[in-house]
Write a structure and sequence with these properties.
Pfam families: DUF1501 (PF07394), Por_Secre_tail (PF18962). By secondary structure, the chain is α/β, with parallel strands linked by helices. The chain is built from 11 helices and 22 strands. Helix content is 27%, strand content 21%. The longest helix has 27 residues.
Length: 510
């Protein structure tokens, strides 16, 4: 079973959850604003867990630094092959599928991500990343679980129309564990889920709960049975109502992201999805495995974003990649790399501010163990997602993370459209779809009321189409433009002029 399915294993995971803490699903619709609530309820976060510790230096490559090839005489990527980002660093050549999204301003690269005195154990490092803690603090709840719980003060009494979070591809319970239960479901094949629950569902039990030591447990299991039955139909219907058109890699991550795309198009009102990809523990023969993994990751993300833009959800969905740690700067004797510290994370989406964030970890200044120095605390990214992406109050992020780690300006329009505040900057977005033959959507933000001229020019600077001219109010604006066969195939430039500046995006007609 391919991309319209989850991987197997839901039954055992639910059983395990039932024996530990209550499994509940709070709802955005019933949030009343505790600690700021989640006002941007239309937004979705898809978190990709790269299991094993991704090698950051062969992902975001400092190809102009001579120390890079000296530290890695065998596995260094030749400078001529690197996909340049800013003249000093670039992506691995296997990540070419991400470059159109980078060029469109839809990829944020957080460099040197980690935390003080990083733990290099897979198990502990993963728990820290999931919980949002530091090296010395052990939390039994996940930052996502705590955040979703705090956004929903009626949790766990109110059962929403859809799960608040949905996890597939790995069995860890910590990411969605909250103080009062599990803020999501772990489910694999949606059709098998429906069959499983319906085959076991007995309806309302008419017999009384026995007054025994196990009476409360039996009552709870019946409640889980009832709730699972309701969600089975919701997930199954969404999987049947949606589809995919992107070209996903025919492996685990491609199947998982294809399923997420299907459920989103099918109408599943779930704001958080978690998926997973293994194979990043590259102690040996790294040149055989790591490029393939980066290619799969990039192609899967690109296919997913194609589907999100196709259904008009590109601005609402963001993909975050995380890994428990990076690798050492020097290669080992097995043509691989051992456990290290800082590594890049990626955030991809049409609604985010693309670019490089944080400094590149220097190769001439390492820590006492000859590992890379951390440049950005990973909790800064979590805080940015809570506040700027989901629109929660600063107090909520501080409460969830146990401290103030600041934010980065990751959102293209920090002020949510739902609260009616003017954008923080004037910006012209890349046209969608692009490249294309016919009609495409043109979107831009105006920080203040302004005169606007929107035109299309060819590579020789000749205007071939005047899209709009006039005065517009502050806010986000959308126009459609169709060359209608009057403009030849080739490269063009979409240019927006306002009194405060000129903004340009590439436009390709096929």
């Amino acid at each position: 079973m391919k991309r319209r399915e989850f991987m197997t294993g839901f039954a055992s995971l639910v059983a395990g959850s039932a024996l530990l803490k209550p499994m509940w699903w709070p709802t955005v619709a019933n949030a009343d604003g505790a600690l700021g609530g989640m006002p941007n309820a239309n937004r979705i976060l898809v978190k990709i867990v790269l299991r094993g510790g991704n090698d950051g230096l062969n992902t975001v490559i400092p190809y102009t630094d001579p120390l890079y090839s000296q530290l890695r005489p065998t596995i260094a990527v030749p400078p001529a092959q690197v996909l340049d980002l800013d003249g000093a660093v670039g992506l691995h050549p296997s990540m070419s599928s991400l470059m159109p999204h980078w060029d469109a301003g839809d990829v944020a690269v957080f460099r040197g991500v980690g935390y003080p005195d990083m733990n290099l154990s897979h198990f502990r490092g993963t728990d820290i990343m999931f919980s949002g803690s530091n090296r010395n603090t052990v939390w039994e709840t996940g930052w996502l679980g705590r955040f979703l719980e705090r956004c929903n003060p009626s949790f766990p009494a109110v059962l929403p129309p859809a799960p608040l979070a949905l996890q597939q591809g790995f069995s860890a319970q910590l990411p969605l564990q909250a103080d009062r239960g599990t803020a999501g479901v772990i489910v694999n094949n949606p059709n098998s889920f429906y069959w499983l629950v319906n085959r076991n569902y007995t309806g309302s039990a008419s017999d009384e709960i026995p007054a025994t030591a196990a009476g409360d447990e039996l009552k709870y299991l019946r409640q889980v049975d009832t709730e699972a039955f309701e969600y089975a139909a919701v997930i199954r219907d969404a999987s049947r109502n949606g589809t995919t058109q992107g070209v996903y890699p025919d492996v685990g991550l491609g199947d998982q992201l294809g399923t997420v795309a299907t459920l989103i198009e099918g109408g599943l009102q779930t704001p958080v999805f978690l998926v997973s990809m293994g194979g990043f523990d590259t102690h040996g023969d790294q040149l055989d495995e790591h490029p393939f993994n980066l290619q799969v990751l990039s192609e899967a993300i690109s296919a997913f974003m194609f589907d999100m833009n196709r259904i008009g959800r590109g601005d609402d969905v963001a993909i975050l990649t995380v890994s428990e740690f990076g690798r050492r700067p020097n290669e080992n004797g097995s043509w691989g790399t051992d456990h290290g510290t800082a590594a890049p994370w990626f955030l991809v989406g049409s609604g985010i501010n693309g670019g490089l964030y944080g400094a590149q970890p220097p190769l001439d200044s390492l820590d006492q163990y000859n590992n890379l120095l951390v440049q950005m605390d990973y909790r800064t990214i979590y805080g940015s997602l809570m506040q700027d992406w989901f629109g929660a109050a600063e107090a909520s992020a501080i409460e969830v993370l146990g401290g103030d780690f600041g934010t980065q300006p990751i959102v293209a329009q920090t002020a949510s459209r739902s609260v009616g505040i003017a954008p923080v900057a004037t910006k012209l977005y890349a046209p969608r779809p692009n490249p294309a033959r016919g009609q495409r959507n043109i979107q831009f933000d105006l920080k203040a009321d302004s005169a606007v001229d929107l035109s299309v020019f060819d590579v020789r600077g000749r205007r071939v189409s005047h899209v709009y001219g006039g005065r517009l109010a502050a806010g986000r604006h959308n126009f459609t433009w169709d060359p209608q066969g009057k403009v030849a195939t080739g490269m063009y430039f979409l240019v927006m002029r306002t009194p405060t500046g000129k903004f340009t995006q590439k436009l390709v007609i096929q």
